[in-house]
Specification:
Elements (H helix, E strand, L loop, with lengths): L1 E4 L6 H8 L5 E2 L3 H5 L7 H14 L20 H7 L14 H9 L6 H22 L3 E5 L7 H7 L4 E6 L2 H19 L6 H22 L8 E5 H6 L1 H12 L4 H14 L9 E3 H10 L1 H6 L9 E3 L2
Parallel strand pairs: 1-3, 1-4, 2-3, 4-5, 6-7
Length: 307
């Protein structure tokens, strides 16, 4: 498999959507993510996929990303449907976010037999995805996997990893905006804006530190790291680099499909953000280690609000 990893709002979805245009890549669709047990049932598929087409909005509420039952989707939703270990339970129970992080991402306190069952479910999900999309190689985009390097390597010792990073200030603002819009519709426990921001700060620190601690475990030649800013500015050069560094075949045959998709995406409009100076100082202090590693500073286009 090829695992696209990186913190939420770092460009993982954009990269996933581009790479999925390669005909060799198989992936989990949004329909499979919602109905993992109905995928191979012809009658159930007919009923539910058309039902889904009627109800699903044309764009994602938090960031205007196009939605469709056939679009690539991350696996965490389906894993949570199939098995009682998933980080995304935090959407319903935000007070337990850090507990879910330790259990679902770091396997802390998880019985070995239970963890093996989780692995088996994930492997089956991948096989069904390949069957469903006629892919030769599974392409994953699942941000929680950023902190699961050890477990994924136990399952797939020769897996390839693409880590995409983005300016941490942009990540904080985009994640905060996304959570503030989405969480009121999903949460079963009330949270304040400040509590959500504190969780974002904490989870980012944990995830990036866990990734940086574990990435040396990935065999040489099986990890490439790209900046979202570079992907946005010169996508074809970045894609060629990814294929070359990971030893993947198919770039030349997929080039026209990549270019066609990227041409359609030129009209996409990102959300614009502003930040309070105190919050900016806090983020730059708490996340300084990643800003230093990837040489980031405050983006010039971000408006600072003095209060």
């Amino acid at each position: 498999p090829v695992f696209i990893i990186g913190h939420w709002r770092s460009g993982t979805t954009h990269l996933h959507n581009i790479l999925s245009k390669d005909p060799d890549m198989g992936y989990l669709t949004t329909f499979q993510g919602v109905f993992p047990d109905t995928l191979m049932n012809k009658l159930g598929r007919f009923i539910f996929i058309n039902f889904t087409r009627l109800l699903i909005p044309s764009t994602r509420k938090g960031d205007n990303v196009t939605l469709s039952p056939d679009n690539p989707q991350e696996e965490e939703f389906a894993l949570g449907d199939k098995f009682p270990i998933s980080y995304y339970y935090f959407w319903m129970f935000p007070e337990k976010t850090l507990d879910y992080y330790d259990q679902a991402l770091r396997a802390k306190g998880v019985d070995k037999k239970l963890l093996q069952k989780w692995k088996n479910n994930y492997s089956l999900l991948i096989k069904k995805s390949l069957q469903n999309t006629s892919g030769k190689r599974f392409l994953s985009k699942n941000p929680p996997n950023t902190a699961r390097i050890r477990v994924l390597l136990e399952m797939f010792p020769n897996a390839r990893f693409i880590h995409i990073h983005r300016n941490p200030i942009e990540v904080f603002l985009s994640t905060t905006h996304f959570f503030n819009i989405m969480m009121p519709y999903l949460q079963l426990q009330a949270t304040t804006d400040q509590e959500r921001e504190e969780l974002i700060i904490s989870v980012y620190k944990r995830m990036m530190k866990d990734f940086l601690e574990d990435k040396h475990l990935i065999p040489e030649g099986n990890l490439t790291e790209v900046a979202f800013e570079e992907l946005e500015a010169d996508p074809m050069t970045v894609l060629k680099k990814i294929y070359g560094q990971l030893g993947l075949e198919g770039f030349d045959s997929a080039t026209a499909l990549f270019e066609e998709y990227l041409k359609k995406m030129k009209s996409y409009k990102k959300n614009r953000h502003a930040i309070n100076r105190d919050k900016l100082d806090n983020v730059m202090n708490e996340w300084k280690f990643t800003m230093d590693i990837w040489n980031y500073s405050k983006p010039d286009h971000i408006e600072i609000i003095d209060e």
